[in-house]
Amino acid sequence: MTAVREAPERSAAPAPPRARLADHVRGWFSQVRRLLGLPVASYYLILFAVLVLTGFGLVMVLSASSITSYDGGKGSSFSIVARQGAFALGGLALMFACSRAPVRLWQALAPWAMAGGLIIQVLPLLPGLGATVNGNRSWIHLGSLQLQPAEFVKLALALFLGAFLGRRIGQLTRLRALLPIVLTVGASVGLVLLGHDLGTGIILMLTAAGALFVGGLRKRYLLLFGAGAVALVGAMVLTSANRMSRIQAVITGHATEGGDSLGDHWQSDHGLYALASGGWTGVGLGASREKWSWLPEAHNDFIFAIVGEELGLLGTFAVIGVFVILACGLVRVICRTSDRMVQATTGGIFLWIIGQAAVNIGVVCGILPVIGVPLPFVSYGGSSLISTLLAAGIVLSFARAEPGAAEALRRRGASVRASLSIFARQPRGN
């Protein structure tokens, strides 16, 4: 009999590159969905974004302020960033301390924080104590330091509105019941506007809008508040030739009148020059030309322009991406709790930090008129950095209160301590 030859087994044909790429993408999205489903996802999203932005801000403050710092007579390129580093260390310590506090503590502290915020906001208006910076009387002197009380009023306002709405949302059916909200928001914004700081006043309005919207205030009352805010901002703009000039520059697309490069809109021009010269990847970290006394407030309100110049379009997209991560963490906190106080307070903090970041970036890009608000966590400024880190700590405490989050964090901490104890018990070599 003749032997029957078996046909050799054929190996499976390799998948085409496009199919392999699709498999990798599906696997990546599957891992992302799994991670976002963890009870500690909100906590780590917010913590990651805040730490990255704060650390990146220190690097950019050093780069943007090195020339100004050295030329300021201090003989050191590190004097400004050293102060910012001290603010960052103190703010991070406060953030982690606040993250361990229970939610009921913030409910109890809210009215006292609001009262204290209004009191310190009066201080810049007092003769001999208040200081005028760039035309705004919104600062007070504390020895060698300057404090901007309005930065802490933003946090106090978000906390107060959150606590108020958490207790009385079912009772706010008449305008008379809204009197505490009207008086508090009106006093907060009014005291800031008395110091001619319209930019900070707008951010306070955004903070209130976020808290009231997420807190469940009726739509007709929200529209009424919105109309009042628009009317107030319009009156402040129409009565100021300087503000009208800034708006005209944005509308017409000409940052200076008559082609005068030394005109009133020097800062806007050079912010755009910095972004335009950065290209895709930038001129290199530390290699900015605009920071050589060409761009005013390069390490403060216009630090995003230096990011674009030194790190390019990709660097600016990376910064925006981290803010998107922070926004996702804040929205996740709002969606995963039924506590109205937590929802409203987080909503106010969301529109404060994310809204202020959007306004700052819009100003630098020439989309909005210059209104003088810093980029949260990144721009130089102790008051802004500490207040935003405090707000992050409060939201982290809300994230710890999500179902299952506290237990998961305790297990993670116990495993880390166990690992460290193993290393501590290792015998030392001779």
From TrEMBL:
GO cellular component, one term: plasma membrane
Pathway: Cell wall biogenesis; peptidoglycan biosynthesis
Coiled-coil zones: none
Membrane-protein topology: Multi-pass membrane protein
UniProt xrefs under InterPro entries: Cell_cycle_FtsW-rel_CS, FtsW, FtsW/RodA
GO molecular function, one term: peptidoglycan glycosyltransferase activity
Domain of life assignment: Bacteria
Catalytic reaction annotation: [GlcNAc-(1->4)-Mur2Ac(oyl-L-Ala-gamma-D-Glu-L-Lys-D-Ala-D-Ala)](n)-di-trans,octa-cis-undecaprenyl diphosphate + beta-D-GlcNAc-(1->4)-Mur2Ac(oyl-L-Ala-gamma-D-Glu-L-Lys-D-Ala-D-Ala)-di-trans,octa-cis-undecaprenyl diphosphate = [GlcNAc-(1->4)-Mur2Ac(oyl-L-Ala-gamma-D-Glu-L-Lys-D-Ala-D-Ala)](n+1)-di-trans,octa-cis-undecaprenyl diphosphate + di-trans,octa-cis-undecaprenyl diphosphate + H(+)
Pfam families found in the cross-reference section: FTSW_RODA_SPOVE (PF01098)
EC number: 2.4.99.28
Enzyme class: transferase
Main location, first listed in the record: membrane
Entry's localization field: Cell membrane
Protein keywords: Cell cycle, Cell division, Cell membrane, Cell shape, Cell wall biogenesis/degradation, Glycosyltransferase, Membrane, Peptidoglycan synthesis, Transferase, Transmembrane, Transmembrane helix
Keyword Cell division recorded: yes
Entry's transmembrane regions: 43-64, 76-97, 109-127, 147-165, 177-194, 200-217, 222-241, 311-335, 347-371, 377-401
GO terms, biological process: cell division; cell wall organization; peptidoglycan biosynthetic process; regulation of cell shape
Role: Peptidoglycan polymerase that is essential for cell division.
Family, per entry: Belongs to the SEDS family. FtsW subfamily.
Protein name according to UniProt: Probable peptidoglycan glycosyltransferase FtsW
Organism: Brevibacterium rongguiense
